[in-house]
Write a structure and sequence with these properties.
Elements (H helix, E strand, L loop, with lengths): L1 H6 L12 E4 L11 E3 L6 H10 L9 E6 L9 E6 L6 E6 L12 E8 L4 E8 L3 E3 L1 E4 L6 H8 L5 H15 L2 H13 L3 H4 L2 H14 L5 H10 L15 H4 L2 H4 L2 H6 L3 H6 L4 H10 L4 H9 L5 H21 L3 H4 L2 E2 L14 E2 H5 L3 H11 L1 E5 L4 E5 L2 H18 L3 E2 L1 H8 L3 H10 L3 E4 L18 E4 L17
Parallel strand pairs: 1-7, 2-8, 10-11
Antiparallel strand pairs: 3-4, 4-5, 5-9, 6-7, 12-13, 14-16, 15-16
Length: 474
């Protein structure tokens, strides 16, 4: 039954037509063709058939009018108007710049017109901006078209444009573009942060009237005079080395009195046996032991001062060699005892044999303290600035014990730095590098050793590095 039912269907006869295809490309200056659709249900073709059956009159024609904005010709704003016949009060208006037409129209269409008599098929391209939604408009009523036009043509503010750009960068941008965006946002000054614009304008106007513009030379002088140097206490106007870097401020009297190895070092001056015993015990750095050999020719006053410096240098170098993770756990021995009860805390006096007064000053000068409110304890850190200050203290004391003619190689070994790495520190202290002749070096292998290759001196008055304006290449 199913097979008979399938065979019983009759196929519709279709006549083949020989049709010639003609493609009409778009031309410049031609606005048409337009495509309009009526969501209200109005059928212009049906209305046209009714008009063709009746007697034609002047008022019964279905008129289609197309307008283009001549002021904004490049925008190609069009308006299509279909007038209702028989003197009706309702027209149909469609635009491509308001409402639905204002949206993005990515689609392109083709209008096909088939003429059976001539058996031709014409294809006309129609872009998305030429498809109109025909809305009914009653004559005599105002539809506030200008207000709608302003809504669609509202320019975005600068903040909204930046916000949209940031959103696109955060969504689709590369890592480098996101980093640049964050850097730009941190440096951008917003208008809300400036407060009232008029008041800020008055403020800058008054400031400009009172303050004169500095030249480049004056600005550099002012910057150099206000520069705070990260070096020990000093006097720029001093005429002697003893007053240039003040000894009693670098090592206070209280610290000098608490040094407990002064007599031991005095007994080791010029005594090779005693010095070798200290070297085997590894109680003192090699820099200190070498100076004990050369101090036997000094006067008593210079010996006493040199011994104090060597003892103090021992403690500074011991603190310098501490790992940074241990510095975080060091507590101030001169502080409250409640903060010493932690199991991870380190007492610098017991750990490195540094006296209390010296340890307290070292922690005050060369570390920073941040209090933890939850555990009521102190957390110590050593920044790069504090570490540079510690190195400058060590270099200044090394200059003093060498009578301000020092070899940078010796302290470079103790600090584990090359001479080129120590050069900026010496220049910051106002020192001057001087090359030593090969005949005056007094080293067994002068060609291979870096010892006595340079000599550090301290010219007076002190002259520190200054900011300079780089000359532009022509």
């Amino acid at each position: 039954m199913e097979e008979n039912h399938r065979h019983s269907r009759k196929k519709k006869k279709r006549n083949r037509l020989d049709v010639s295809l003609e493609f009409v490309p778009p031309k410049e200056g031609h606005t048409g063709p337009f495509v309009g659709y009526f969501p209200s249900g109005f059928d212009p073709m049906h209305f046209k058939q009714e008009l063709s059956q009746s007697e034609p009159t002047e008022m019964s024609d279905l008129k289609v009018l197309a307008y283009q904005n001549t002021e904004k010709y490049k925008t190609r704003q069009h308006q299509l108007v279909v007038n209702s016949p028989d003197g009706g009060t309702v027209d149909f208006v469609g635009t491509n710049y308001l409402g639905e037409g204002a949206l993005w129209q990515p689609g392109n269409y083709a209008l096909g017109i088939f003429d059976k008599d001539s058996q031709t098929l014409q294809l006309l391209p129609v872009s998305g901006t030429k498809v109109f939604r025909m809305e009914p408009r009653v004559r005599g009523l105002g539809y506030d078209v200008e207000a709608l036009a302003t809504l669609t043509n509202v320019e975005m503010s600068k903040d909204s444009m930046i916000q949209k750009r940031n959103l696109l960068t955060a969504t689709f941008g590369t890592h480098k573009s996101r980093m640049m965006q964050n850097r730009y946002e941190r440096g951008r000054v917003k208008e809300d942060d400036l407060g009232d614009k008029e008041e800020m304008g008055k403020f800058f106007q008054k400031a400009g009237e009172k303050i004169s513009v500095l030249t480049m030379h004056e600005a550099l002088q002012q910057a150099n005079s206000s520069l705070k140097r990260n070096i020990p206490p000093h006097d720029v106007t001093a005429s002697t080395h003893e007053k240039a870097y003040i000894f009693d401020e670098i090592i206070t009297v209280e610290e000098q009195n608490c040094l407990d190895d002064i007599e031991l070092l005095k007994s080791a001056i010029g005594n090779k046996v005693k010095i070798n015993e200290l070297r085997e015990q590894r109680a003192y750095p090699e820099f200190v032991l070498q100076r004990l050999h050369t101090m036997k020719h000094l006067q008593d006053e210079q010996k006493n001062k040199g011994i104090v410096i060597l003892s103090y240098l021992k403690h500074l170098l011991a603190f310098y060699r501490l790992p940074r993770h241990l510095i975080n756990s060091i507590v101030d021995p001169m502080g409250s005892q409640a903060k010493l009860s932690g199991s991870n805390s380190i007492d610098l006096t017991r750990y490195a044999n540094i006296p209390d007064a010296v340890a307290g000053k070292i922690l005050k000068l060369f570390t920073t303290v941040s209090e933890d409110m939850t555990s009521e304890s102190e957390a110590r850190t050593q920044t790069d600035e504090k570490r540079d200050l510690l190195i400058n203290y060590i270099l200044v004391l090394g200059l003093m014990v060498d009578n301000y003619r020092a070899d940078p190689y010796d302290l470079g070994v103790e600090l584990k730095k090359t001479i080129s790495q120590l050069r900026p520190y010496y220049l910051e202290l106002g020192c001057k590098f001087k090359s030593v002749k090969e005949a005056d070096r007094g080293v067994a292998e002068p060609k291979t050793s870096l010892q006595r290759l340079y000599e550090i001196t301290l010219p007076l008055p002190l002259r520190f590095p200054t900011l300079k304006n780089k000359k532009r290449r022509v």
